Amino acid sequence: MEEKGKQDEKINKYSCACALVASMISIIFGYETGVMSGAMIFIKDDLKINDTQIQVLAGIINFCALLGALVAGRTSDYIGRRYTICLASSIFLLGSLLMGFSPNYAILLTGRCVAGIGVGFALVIAPVYSAEISATNTRGVLASLPEICISLGILSGYISNYFFGKLPLDIGWRVMFCIAAIPSVVLALAILIMPESPRWLVMRGHLKDAKQVLLKVSNNKEEAESRLHDIKLAVGIDPNCNEDVVTFKQDTRGQGVWKELLLRPTPPVRWVLIAAIGIHFFEHATGIEAVVLYSPRIFNKAGVTSKDKLLLATIGVGVTKFIFITASTFFIDKAGRRKLLLTSVGGMIVALLGLGFALTIVHQSHDQNVVWALWLSIATCYLYLMFFNMGLGPVTWVYSSEIFPQKLRAQGAAIGVAVNRATNATVSMTFLSLINAITIGGAFFLFAGMSVLAWIFFFFFLPETKGRSLEEMEQVFTRGRKSRDADVELQKTGKDGARVM
């Protein structure tokens, strides 16, 4: 029994490979975010644009991502998770080429909008596919891979800034954007060897195909049959049905989902929706986009003036983000989502207060030499990134991709991503105006206040989901006796994540 338990806890290599390939789309998105941070310095000088135009250029990708996210949920329900990833990579390819070859600001903005639609698709489909392909006890690791890939992409963007920034002014930033076309083509080809999500296949009635995929992504036949049993039950198919193909009386391509989510949600679904919207809102309302996108400006305010040093300091931001988000992946299934969230946001509050204090001292000192405040600004900036990426960053995407019921998952995740992108756009497009209005120190005090609200929200509204199968999430979000009884039965079975029958 002990040997079998250890075998079940292993990460299936095939499911890991599938999640890694799907997560490549997140590398492209991360690169687009990171590269803009440094490219803005060169674009402003080359195209002679002002701060308002820079803010629009930085933030418009998120408004377009909002539209992409809302379309992606229904699209993935209709054509499948795999081909939706292929579509997203094609959109990224077009956007990258438009930005790279843009002769003026208008074409550059158009390319940024096209890339934004690809971002919306990527942010919805990569976590959903990774969650649906993985087993319960490894879902946290595999579903957080997209966030790790985003961090890797951001770091790649920062490195690209540093090296291509040495090229002539009118060429360097264009090359930075064109580079993103390469992984887009690679992903479009790699997607052809990936299997479809077994849960989507069951939703479409393709039981034989779903079983074949589950046999590949599970560690043994018993685990595959157990997972198939739970998925059948969740979508309303008799668990004992052994037919290869099942025809549903009702359409299973995502129709009517918006009504179930927004107009007539059950109490558990309403709670799930509030939790998903809340965690996506607070991920960006606590200031991460200000640090990632405008880190050169922050370091400039802290006294780093040379372009080379600014870009090197920004690479440090990418390295910090990547290291800690990768480290958190190994704890998310052991420590649990809730514990990581509360610890992460608590640390962010302390770091943001320190960053706001240090930048306020620097701002008020004018020509005085306050080296300690400069170093404190940089140290607390990195500390903030450390805490964000050990919890709130990866948990947001794992949590929101796993809590919705099967039928509502893709479009429910799309609503969360839409809120995420709207909040991201608001922060990225108003940050420069905000620091002009209340100073850069005041802006980070504001983000500290939002982090306090986030901690309170997570404490009261986000239950732990560690060890629960995707088909059990409605039990987790049901208050009262039914939820407690389910917990007792789960403990009695001794099966981590198995459905209680």
From TrEMBL:
Protein name, as recorded: Major facilitator superfamily protein
Keyword annotations: Membrane, Sugar transport, Symport, Transmembrane, Transmembrane helix, Transport
Membrane topology: Multi-pass membrane protein
Species in which this protein is naturally found: Artemisia annua
Recorded GO MF terms: symporter activity
Subcellular location: Membrane
Gene Ontology CC terms: membrane
PROSITE patterns (UniProt xref): MFS, SUGAR_TRANSPORT_1, SUGAR_TRANSPORT_2
NCBIfam families listed in its UniProt record: SP
Gene3D superfamilies reported in the protein's UniProt record: MFS general substrate transporter like domains (1.20.1250.20)
Keyword Transmembrane: yes
Annotated Pfam families: Sugar_tr (PF00083)
Domain Major facilitator superfamily (MFS) profile stretches: 18-466
Positions of transmembrane segments: 12-32, 52-71, 83-101, 107-129, 141-159, 171-194, 310-332, 344-362, 369-387, 434-462
UniProt family annotation: Belongs to the major facilitator superfamily. Phosphate:H(+) symporter (TC 2.A.1.9) family. Belongs to the major facilitator superfamily. Sugar transporter (TC 2.A.1.1) family.
